[in-house]
Amino acid sequence: MPTVDCLRSVPIERTPRVKQLEGLFDVPPAARSERRWRVSLPIEERDWNVGLIVGPSGCGKSTLARACFGERPEPSWPSDRAIVDAFPAALGIKEIVSLLSSVGFSSPPAWLRPYHALSTGEQFRVRMARALAQGGPMTVVDEFTSVVDRTVARIGSAAIARTVRARGTKFVAVTCHYDVTDWLDADWIYDPSADEFTWRCLRRRPPITLEIARVRRSAWRLFKPHHYLSGDLNLSAQCFVAFIEDRPAAFAAVISGPDSHGGHFREHRVVCLPDFQGVGIGNALSEFVASLYASRKRYFSRTSHPGMIRHRMQSPLWTCIARPGFKSRHTRATFARTGSTCRLAASFRFIGPPRPDEARRFGIVRTSKSPRLRVGLVTHRHQPEA
Known about the structure:
Shape: elongated
Number of strands: 16
Number of helices: 12
Order of helices and strands: EHEEHHHHEHEHEEEHEEEHEHEHEHEE
Strand order of the largest sheet: 13-14-12-11-10-9-8-15-16
Helix content: 25-40%
Distance between the termini: 45 Å
Structural class: alpha+beta
């Protein structure tokens, strides 16, 4: 696709007002308004996964995208069915869950709602997941991130780019917002307003800074609707919230295990709000909190979230002590009797380095203060900076 001829053409109905405007501004009468231009996009010269067409409104981005990649109609959404039922019939539920989680929408309760009942940010993530599911080897999204909060846009861009590269497909974003450029980290960028094409330069995606605070149990109310478990917090839970630019983003809670054999601590809840999912914030908070309590005793976690299990299986900070499986026979019988779903879960022990100094500052080791501590998160590493 070295050279593309673009044409934007629309009919003009020469109404009385149109004729008056032609006279006022000396505009030649015409039956159509047309603009033609030629663009060179050398995207066949190299292998790539993510492309970005970015420029101000009216510069021809959408016309160029249609000329290069064809028409991409916006799909319809059923008004009375869960969003998981809007995906292609050939996809199994595990594939759908994996796609939703990979683009940063990891809130199972919200997966049961119809599209119109989701927030704007959630709708954006779902559209991206469905576009990837239906787009085949090439997915093109016009008006990318145009209707979402800019924080959501940036974090969502990073999550989507990571997913596309992991799937080995091609994705082209078309947008008027330059603020997603570094976060999408596209392999090539074309700006129609300047007629400028550039291949990707090696660079680090901007870091995310988490400000972590120890909080009261009442903070759980904000996060509870987005967690895959419906139960309330344990009365003994010790709670933490990660903030991004003073906005709450993720929540973690810890409880004590039995005192036999020296006792231990156990992760009780971890959840990230939908606007901030997809770049490892929940895992970063989980691992930071684990490192605090590991300064005192052993630290364990059991989870049934597929994304969290996958991350911990690959992380050097955790060791799996019980591979994904169902709970005891007695527990399965209870599930059968009550009609609940028996969840597949895995157990892990935290083996990363402890943080005794930070643990003292958080009151976990002989101090009563509850400070905030800023923790850097490099998104492509998914680990707090030292």
